[in-house]
Amino acid sequence: MSITINDKPTAFITGATSGIGLATAKLFASNRINLVICGRRKKRLNELKKELSRHTKVFILEFDVQDKKAVFEAIASLPDEFSNIDILINNAGNAHGLDSIEEGNIDDWEAMLDINVKGLLYVSKAIMPKMIKNKAGHIINIGSIAGKEVYPMGNVYCASKYAVDAINQGMRIDLNKHGIRVGAINPGLVETEFSKVRFKGDDGRAEATYKGYKPLQPEDIADVIHFMVTRPSHVNIADLLILPTAQASATIVNKEL
Ligand code: NDP
Ligand code: 8X3
Description:
Layout (H helix, E strand, L loop, with lengths): L9 E4 L5 H12 L3 E6 L2 H11 L5 E5 L5 H9 L3 H4 L3 E4 L15 H29 L3 E5 L12 H21 L5 E7 L6 H5 L4 H7 L8 H12 L9 E4 L15
Parallel strand pairs: 1-2, 1-4, 2-3, 4-5, 5-6, 6-7
The structure holds NADPH dihydro-nicotinamide-adenine-dinucleotide phosphate (NDP) and 2-hydroxyethylsulfonic acid.
């Protein structure tokens, strides 16, 4: 399978230290896609760079997507070799808390909107100009089933992912004239560190999220991301909902407990 964007494409992956971003970085590396891997956990980024550099060229950017200045400075600091981004995977994000709206924690609300929505916008804003100049590029936004369906206590996380859905559509419309592909993947339940973060280290609750059925694995989503970026250049997969077989909707999961 050949990459159609560029013979030696460079991908920029936010949230590459864990879960879906990590699995995507590994799969891209094994397919010789050059990588800019991003996240806040420097130690993990260093270890990953060491591992993936056996297959491809890797550059680390350590920044918090909420920090507008840090985002722009980090991306402006990319050496020439990594500065033409062919593929942007807007993946960094999490849910913080699972509370009924009247009991919601304002810090959690701000984190979800600042990271999942504003962070995605900052990174995109910094990367789009060169894609526009090059008249090529592919942006994949990681949304969620939570951006297609609101579920009990999902409130602000769902709002953040509905925003990602709207931004994905808006980007596709506005970047159409520049020949840039834009598409979203909206997963259901994927077994990552997502629930550890949502439940703030309550490992029992996090583990229970994935018990009694076979959840998606981060590699399942990475496979689809790789499929999307390896379509011929006239093909843009615009919007995908991917669920574990046991999941029918945000609230219907066939668990054997
Ligand atoms: P993980 O918790 O395993 O990974 C989240 C990644 O996002 C980490 O690499 C983390 O890196 C990064 N990240 C989080 N906050 C920030 C921040 N402020 N600045 C920079 N990076 C940040 O979760 P997933 O892999 O599951 O999540 C990836 C995406 O998939 C998210 O957008 C999530 O909403 C979405 N998703 C997940 C589903 C699931 O069931 N797991 C289902 C549907 C969508 P670090 O901590 O090093 O900064
Ligand atoms: C993550 C999946 O169902 O916890 O976006 O919202 S869910």
